[in-house]
Amino acid sequence: MNSASILVIDDEAQIRKLLTITLESFDYKVQEATTAKEGLVAVANHPPDLVLLDLGLPDANGHEVLKHLREWYTNPIIILSVQSSEEDIVKALDNGANDYLVKPFRTGELVARIRSALRISSLDENVAFVEFGDVSIDFAARVVKKNEVAIKLTATEYTLLALFAKNEGKVLTHHYVLHQVWGPAYKNESQYLRVFIAQLRKKIETDPNRPVHILTESGVGYRFVGK
After folding, report:
1. How confident is the model at residue 84 (pLDDT cuts 50, 70, 90)?
2. Domain range list for the chain
3. In which element (H, E) is residue 132 found?
4. pLDDT (tens digit, 9 = 90+) per residue, 168-223?
5. Cross-strand pairs, 166
6. Where are the alpha helices (DSSP H) in the chain?
7. Strand partners of residue 9
8. Parallel, antiparallel, or unpaired for β 99-102 and 77-81?
9. Which among 142, 99, 121 has a CA at the least distance from the CA of 49?
10. CA 208, CA 214: separation in Å to the nearest integer?
11. Which CATH architecture has domain 129-224?
């Protein structure tokens, strides 16, 4: 039984109806808002556990709404939009969206993304140990093991893996990862990042050519999947 509350901010009545029926069938509590103003007021008055935000709102640009929300709202935000360009997706993710789905979307995929985002947001941010597949990370000791055997990672590889593991399920853009791991001077060095991702996959993936943990989001960045 889900107790999570979800706010849908979308001006399309048919989409809101579809989302409400679908989400309520999974026992989520659903609120609706048809404009940016209504959405911001709803989040302020009754903060939901997760927001589904459309970018094409009648009274404001969805990107601006996202930025306003991220000034104080820390729960997951998933973008649902007909805008499918890499520029829009990267912009939304860089502005703090947890995920991005292009309309029309499969309801099963949406529910899975919601479950993942809610599960991850409920985790203790100070967790000291993570396991995924046959790999474990001890953050306190900075030790990574595969099949109980310690893996030798460079400092950069460890920092990169830790960043992914602590953002499980969230799409991290190339710009964000480069800025977090190497600093602003490297924000455009996507090829540099690909080299390190390839090295890291060789060390933690069972089949580096068919990764199941560090997944590529084409043209956007990477998503880490643990369980």
Report:
1. confident
2. 5-121, 129-224
3. strand 129-132
4. 888 999 988 998 888 777 777 888 899 999 999 999 999 999 999 999 998 899 99
5. none
6. 13-25, 36-45, 62-69, 86-94, 107-121, 155-165, 174-181, 190-204
7. 33, 53
8. parallel
9. 121
10. 9
11. Orthogonal Bundle (1.10)
Q: For residue range 126-165, list pLDDT tens digits in order.
A: 567 888 889 999 988 889 999 999 999 888 899 899 999 9
The residues near 221 (Cβ < 8 Å, ≥ 6 apart) are: 90, 93, 171, 172, 173, 174, 175, 176, 177
CB of 61 within 8 A of CB of 55?
yes
Mean predicted confidence (pLDDT) in 95-112: 90
Angle at alpha carbon of residue 4, lines to 177 and 169, rounded to 5°: 20
Residues 6+ apart with CB under 8 A from 41: 33
8 A C-beta contact, residue 227 and residue 184? no
**Cα(83)–Cα(165) distance, integer angstroms:** 29
State which fold the 5-121 domain adopts.
Answer: Rossmann fold (3.40.50)
Measure the CA–CA gap between 180 and 185, rounded to whole angstroms. 11
CA atoms within 13 A on the CB side of 112: 9
Look-up of token digits 């107790």: 3
